[in-house]
Design brief:
Blueprint: E1 2-7, H1 14-17, E2 21-28, E3 31-38, E4 41-47, H2 52-64, E5 68-79, E6 89-97, E7 119-120, H3 123-147, E8 155-162, H4 170-182, E9 189-191, H5 194-204, E10 208-216, H6 222-232, H7 234-242
Parallel strand pairs: 1-4, 1-5, 5-10, 6-8, 8-9
Antiparallel strand pairs: 2-3, 3-4, 5-9, 6-7, 6-10
The structure holds adenine (ADE).
Protein name: adenosylhomocysteine nucleosidase
Pathway: Amino-acid biosynthesis; L-methionine biosynthesis via salvage pathway; S-methyl-5-thio-alpha-D-ribose 1-phosphate from S-methyl-5'-thioadenosine (hydrolase route): step 1/2
EC number: 3.2.2.9
Amino acid sequence: MTLAILSALPEEQAGIAALLTDARIHDHAGRRYSCGQLHGQAVVLALSGIGKVAAASTAATLIERFGARGIVFTGVAGGLGDGVQVGDVVVATRYAQHDLDASPIFPRYEVPGYGRALFDCDAALSAQLAVAVQQCLAGGGAAWTAELGLPAPQMHQGLVVSGDRFVSSAAEVQALRSGLRAAGMDALAVEMEGAAVAQVCADHGLPFAAMRSISDRADDSAHLDFPRFIHTISSRYAQHIIGSL
Ligand code: ADE
């Protein structure tokens, strides 16, 4: 089975690319795909770029052209849930699109044609990820966050939401959370790709899992915290967590 490892940005995946052996590079439709081996396991690495359309297109190519039999997303996210702090790691259990609204024809957040808003992550692959995250946080993780003056990182598991917007104000976080709560959802983190990949994997009946390290709190300092985190820690998390799957 070829496992696909997908990220939006190179900084989110550099640590894994460094571990790839027998690497063969393919450029297709504006994306770079790196096929090879990770500790003897066949993998294909890809960078989607930012946003749901870019992520969906890349996921479809990974499946149809590169024979991916499952996709793991690794990247960063803004923390939304109480107690989800910068440096923590979220393993998604399910996904929704926070900016999808075809109401009043369909309930807010529901994906038209699917009869639901939520897409589950694969339980077995997510459990594997969670074990790898715990091992990483108990090992080097705390030292890395300490470099940024952050407390020891925690792991969280639950709903992650995606939308085509970088969330960067406390007011926006409040509006987003209250909209989700009105639909019975409480999200741990927000990012811009995962729900699209979850939907493509569901279409193909393939497993999907995602881990997101928290780069910012999606608040008024998110635009400062995001680059600081992505340049220092996110790739190290990816290397240790995905590299040990
Ligand atoms: N990815 C990382 N931080 C984010 C934020 N605040 N909003 C959307 N996507 C993000």
